[in-house]
Amino acid sequence: MNDASHTAWTPDGETQAKPTEDAIIAAIAEVYDPEIPVNIYELGLIYAIEIADDNAVKVEMTLTAPACPSAQELPQQVHNAVMSVSGVTSCDVETVWDPPWDPSRMTEEARLQLNMF
Length: 117
Description:
alpha+beta, three-stranded mixed beta sheet, 3 helices, elongated
């Protein structure tokens, strides 16, 4: 479980931990495409992360191709990873296709790992 969240104090005591984007990214980076030995964040499959005031998280992601064999399991794995972050109250993962994924979305580190220069 990721504990990289911020806890606020009020006169009434401690409030609910606020998850950080860094903590959510770290959790998502634990999810790997089963066919590619790079985490899905480094692959550039995560398009947006939004944290609402009530600590609900929305993630927009894509897949390497619409016919990806992991189309059902990867969004569920992202959901589970985000829910493991301290303070997250709910998570909605939406798979989007626009813009389409292409290798230019990968980080330099991912390109190096896959020998794609």
